[in-house]
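User: what does the whole thing look like in 3D?
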Amino acid sequence: MGLLSTYSLRLARKRWRIRAFRKRRELRAVSARTDKIKPDDILVFSTLRNERVRLPYFLRYYRDMGVNHFLIVDNDSTDGSREYLAEQPDVSLWHSAHSYKRARFGVDWLNWLQIRYAHKHWILVVDPDEFFVYPFCDTRPLRALTDWLDASSIKSFSAMLLDMYPKGPIGAQPYREGQDPFEIANWFDSGNYMISRNRKYGNLWIQGGPRARAFFADAPERAPALNKIPLVKWHRDYAYVSSTHNLLPRGLNLVYDEWGGEKASGCLLHAKFLDTFAVKAEEEMQRRQHYANSHEYRAYKAALNDHPDLWCKWSEKYINWRQLEILGLMSKGNWA
Amino acid sequence: MSVGFVMLCHTALDRAAQVARHWAENGCPVVIHVDRRVRKRPYNKLVRDLSDVADVRFADRHACEWGTWGIVGATQSAATIMLRDFPQVRHVYLASGSCLPLRPVEELVAYLAERPRTDFIESVTTEDVGWTIGGLNIERFTLRFPFSWRRQRRLFDGYVRLQRLLRFKRRIPAGLEPHLGSQWWCLTRQTLSAILEDPERETYDTYFKKVWIPDESYFQTLVRLYSSNVESRPLTLSKFDFQGKPHIFYDDHLQLLRRSDCFVARKIWPHAGKLYRSFLSPDAATQTRAEPNPGKIDRLFSKAVERRTKGRPGLYMQSRFPNDNWENGKTAAPYSVFWGFADLFDNFEPWLGKVAGTRVHGHLFATDRVHYAGGETVYNGAMPDSPPMRDYNPKSFLVNLVWNTRGERQCFQFGPADVQKVGSFLASDPNAQISVISGAWAVPLFHSNRNFGEIRKEAARLQKIEAEHLNLLRSPWVKARVRVWTLADFVENPMEPLQVIVDEISPRALRRLTEAPRMADLTGFGQFLQNLRNQGMQPVLMGDFPTGDDPKPSANRRGRPYLVK
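Assistant: Here's the predicted 3D structure for the full assembly of 901 residues, as structure tokens:
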């Protein structure tokens, strides 16, 4: 890593932060309860649009985990998401009717809120369909993990996106509000992930899983990235670059060991493939507000018309984090 | 006679108060030292909380930065108060604010009463320790450390390098033999007072103030001067990870801690309410009077350290992505690669599966699709059979396959007609057993019903690819187990090489091959090669097949003695 590229990354980071600063005007506070945030609180950041049916379980899941406050940007929902979130005592809500795409898929908005409210907090940046799983999550609250990370001088924690899907056609079982989505979508791919290194930012680039297998078998380079670093001890100088896939400064992306050992890591269980998916795919196709001309959604839609079953005989049924650790999808590292 | 506790606290003072109260109310006096960097308000609250407990004292507050003298100073003043105010105390136990007693106090008192002259302190000479961090062993005692390791790491490291360069050495005070050990000890009144009241103490203190991490060496060294009976182990169960940070105990360690039979454990997560509730409750009495036995916990934590430093061989994932040659196993298990065998033998795959009892795939790297065993379209771990996916990252494909099928040896066919990208990875992997019959690609061409011009072109292409592959396998850096035969040699005597390969795949079977795979008919093959030559293409890799002198392997084979049962 030469001096020049280090400096150019520094400039890039500054640029993202300035951009976030400019984009702050696109946010309008609906119910800002940020004065309730205490110095040690663990915060969840999220952007969403029309996710009303998922919200009750989402909030409950993270509240039970020990999250203290939610900071959410609502991108112009029309299904009552905003009204519902505004009522929640531990949610600070902002609204934006501006382009999701031009806010770099919400990253700019959240970067701003993180600069403003997340300094020196542990933050978890997740979508409403992402459910964080970490080692010992069944017996230890999230604070146990962040305390341990603090004690070990670790500032960022990796959690790969693990796409979960139902057996049978997507949408055969309707999702009820408040229901655990993994009662329906409880299968996943255990061992078809392709990993390479992003030399520029130093993060790993992981692709694969059911989406690559079913929708991108002929164009794997276009398959969505699954590497995520959602849990960070935030500093106001940091910035997410592309979704939560990587950040700057690039030391934060070094969530993997390069000398043979295993660092601790978790997973984000991705409850994307529920009956809401078809509707969502249709809507996103219309809005064209997603990454790379929504080619992902175009691929989904094309495939969804004829092959809606992601399940195969080698699909693995989800049990708990220990199963994921044994399969090598996540690791306890030296946390015992 | 009883035991007194000196507690060093800096965070989670409410938990420290809880433990101090527990000890004091069970007849053990407690002297608490709180780091001076703790703010006034929480400190005052702690004092208030414990104001109703008689046998608790508070020591003068020192700033305790890790690795510096402060901790020793704190221990000294607290211990002095303990010895002064509580004459009935025979053993002084040094604990931290995040310690938790695992067994009733009476058991500890009884245990120490049976050993009235024993000092429990880990104390090892510098030559014998392998656990120090940063490579500083004896240098802890011979260099100066004026900079903070936490806050001024560069200065710290730079100053160490400078002193090494200048060959600077401090003199160790006469009579001292440097010893290191865990910071947590339990000393008798006699030993401890001898250390504290030593006429030379001023000299020693001045010296140790500049030693690196004196809390792990001050008492550990001085105890050797006075103690008649050092038991070199701490009574406190405390485990360190590979960075020298203590492991933390949580609620889910409850059973493990119960069964450890240790007296005190550190460090406990302050929010581990279940641990505090269970071990501090008055009815926590255990039946055992056993010796401490932390074996299980040792294993748990040493496994954790091993996972962090070595990891699982052959695993590539989000938090383990080793640099080249740091993999500790490029793949998870041994596997076999067969080059040319399926061309020479008609039924090679089913035959091998039968004799070696393994999973035998077809050409995994074929251009049309991935030929998994049994013609599967999806394989273990939900691996698809799409060639673009495989070729997008062939290394991931292969390591995933081997990882997903751990416990079952994988064999697959490979050849010059396949996508070659994975070749160099195979060659560099010690788990790969690569067997090559060079020139075997000509056999299917020989049997094919294609125009000779086409055959010639194809032969030239395959021969070029195979020559490159063979060159690769001859590179000096090759780690795979490579065996190469020419087609001519192999046809001459196929059973012996096959036996060697099969023995290596299933070493325990140890039986002679009784059935050979069915070899393709090679009648006229020599002529075929000659025709290629006549057309201007030089087939060189298959060895020597004279025209007209067709090999008769079957006759040859029948004569082998090992076919007799």
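In plain terms: The two ends of chain A are 34 Å apart (CA to CA). Chain A touches chain B through 60 residues (CB under 8 Å).
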